[in-house]
Amino acid sequence: MLDLVTAGVLVLDRQAVVTACNPAAETIVRRPVAAICGRDAIDLLVPERLRQVVRERFATLRTHQQTWEGIGPIVRGDDTTVRCVIRARALAPSPGDAALSGAGAEVVPAGGTGLSRGAHRGEAAPVSEDDRADPEPQEFLVVFTPLDAAPDPALLRAERAVRSELEHARDRLAFVANAGGRLASSLDVSMTYETVGTLVVPRFGQLCVIDLWDGRSLDRAYVHDSEAADDPTHQELVEQIRALGGKQTDEDPAVRAALTARPVVVERATAERLAAMYHPDACEVVARATRGRGLVAIPLITRGRVLGVLSLFGPGCAYGRELAAGEDLPLLEQVASRAAQSIENARLFNAERRLARHLQESERRQRRAALTLQRSLLPAVPYRPGDLEVATRYFPGTAETEVGGDWYDVIPLTTGRTALVIGDVMGRGLRAATLMGQVRTAVRAYGRQDLRPKEILALLDGIVADLGEAEIVTCVYAVFDSLECSLSYASAGHLPLLVVDGRGRARRLDHETGLPLGVGAGAAPEHAVSVTEDMVVAFYTDGLVENRHRDVDAGIDQLVEALGLARGTLEGMCDQVIDALRPPTGYDDDVALLLASARH
User: What share of residues in the chain are helix, strand, coil (percent, to 5)?
Assistant: First the structure.
């Protein structure tokens, strides 16, 4: 296809040796393809006085893979020269490059491309394994057109200008995308400030300042100079700029940007302009920061309000040249908009984190208070009657959970009779612990009257209803009679009692239970069981048998099994049962356990 192109086309290898050309190239340089391919293009086509310069440019093209354009002379086969418009660029590496090295000087047609390739020996170095792995391009394309047949130079300049603007536009889009990604990844205010500073310096200025706006004044939050880390003079300037925070006048560009929500650009910071905008003691510092150039202040706007101001002092540096203040203002506004969103998100996140810490501390204090109250209400040393052996355990759940309302009690009644009580207020925290204390006090008061278990629960039902608390309270009230060797009990919605006989066989007492206390459902049914020698009765709360990985029924079955395997004293049996049912991560709810066994 290139045989139809009027411009000359050459393909060069990395040593600038011609490997292919089209018919137009033969015509322009007035040489046959055999006299072109396999020859050093610079020695063949460039006047001797320009060869060193061209070789340097070719080396740059090979290293940086850029495109070079220009006008220059080309030596023809008849020793005349023709001025041409020349464009050279790198080609992507081709896996077939090695096939171009061979013997002879014959012309090898290059498929249907219109290029003629010359196979040659000696002039070009063979392609080695290292060359194949080299990321640098292996071939370069040179297109040239005689000046009298080339487009108007003005059109070429316009084309280059448009191409340059397109490259700048792509650069701006890539910069905004990179800035947005980096800023969105930070939820720490200090890190966000640092990210903003490294993004805008030195591209938009030599020194960056971030001031936060509260609606009335600016508070200096951040100052960044890329050279401050290595230069004491710049470090001193940074400190001086930071000290100026909060001392701005109404004409200060940052204040004006905050008040108007519009950018303020000072193209040249002359002494007169600075004197009109700053306090006298600040003018000299700002003049040093601007380096005799200008400054720009961009409002940081998010959710329709001004959060602060981003100020940049001194010239920027981009596209290989110096940028004046505000020269790339639309791009800077895009960066400022994303910076404002990121700063706002980081501040909200930090505020939420501080609030969460305060709530956690408040919850810990409440937990400690509830735990202290609950432990003070439980019997420090349970009553131990002579005809009944008792062992108890209580401990709260993990530190992440609030204290619940579990309790137990052992109450002496008349001769040979002892009340055993266990209950659970189905709430957490100080409120549950307080309600538990009130119910426990009522139980002890009514228990002294030596009433029947169902009568005790009927009275407690009225007490809980009168307290007006929207909590569920379960309770088992049992009376052990050593003279009759019996245990009579009533349950208000509590978990079933368990018994272990003298041969280690454990089972549930699946008797009917009443509704929880406080619902006004009347008396709970009362039951009685005989207590034989060495029988152990187990009272417990749901925290022992239920957790997030185990339901209540499975937990009770596991407790029955653990009681059947436990041996030794009641104290030892308590420890064995607690260890057997302990979840891998610990109990996440309060646990209360009471074991009782008749003495004979």
Answer: 40, 25, 35
271 pLDDT band, cuts 50/70/90, is: confident
Cα–Cα dist 390/595, whole Å: 6
Q: Are 45 and 58 in contact (CB under 8 A)?
A: no
Q: pLDDT value at position 97?
A: 43
416-431 per-position pLDDT tens digit: 899 999 998 877 666 7
The helix (run of H) or strand (run of E) holding residue 275 is helix 271-277
pLDDT score of 382: 65
Q: Tell me how far apart the alpha carbons of residues 585 and 48 are, in angstroms, rounded to a whole number.
A: 85
* Topology alike, domains 2-150 and 168-348: yes
Q: Tell whether the model's pLDDT for residue 155 goes beyond 70.
A: no
Options 2.40.128.260, 3.40.50.970, 3.40.50.9100, 3.60.40.10; CATH for 379-598 is: 3.60.40.10
Q: What is the DSSP string of 218-244?
A: EEEEEEEETTTTT-HHHHHHHHHHHHT
Nearest in space to 595 (alpha carbons), one of 410, 441, 406, 415:
410
Q: Which of 565, 496, 175, 482 is nearest to 335 (CA)?
A: 175
The CATH number given to 168-348 is 3.30.450.40
Q: Quote the distance between the C-alpha of residue 453 and its chain's center.
A: 59
The CA-atom distances, in angstroms, between 240 and each of 133, 237, 488 are 53, 5, 85
How many distinct helices (H) and strands (E) make up the chain?
17, 24
Nearest to 448 by CA among 467, 421, 484: 421
Q: Is the pLDDT of residue 124 over 70?
A: no
Please tell me which residue, 67 or 221, carries the higher pLDDT value: 221
Q: What are phi and psi of 100, to 5 degrees?
A: -80, -15
Q: Where are the domains of the chain?
A: 2-150, 168-348, 379-598
DSSP H or E run through 395: strand 388-395
What DSSP string describes 121-171? SSSSPPPPHHHHH-SS-SEEEEEEEEGGGSPPHHHHHHHHHHHHHHHHHHH
Tokens of 378: 């439980």
The CATH code belonging to domain 2-150 is 3.30.450.20
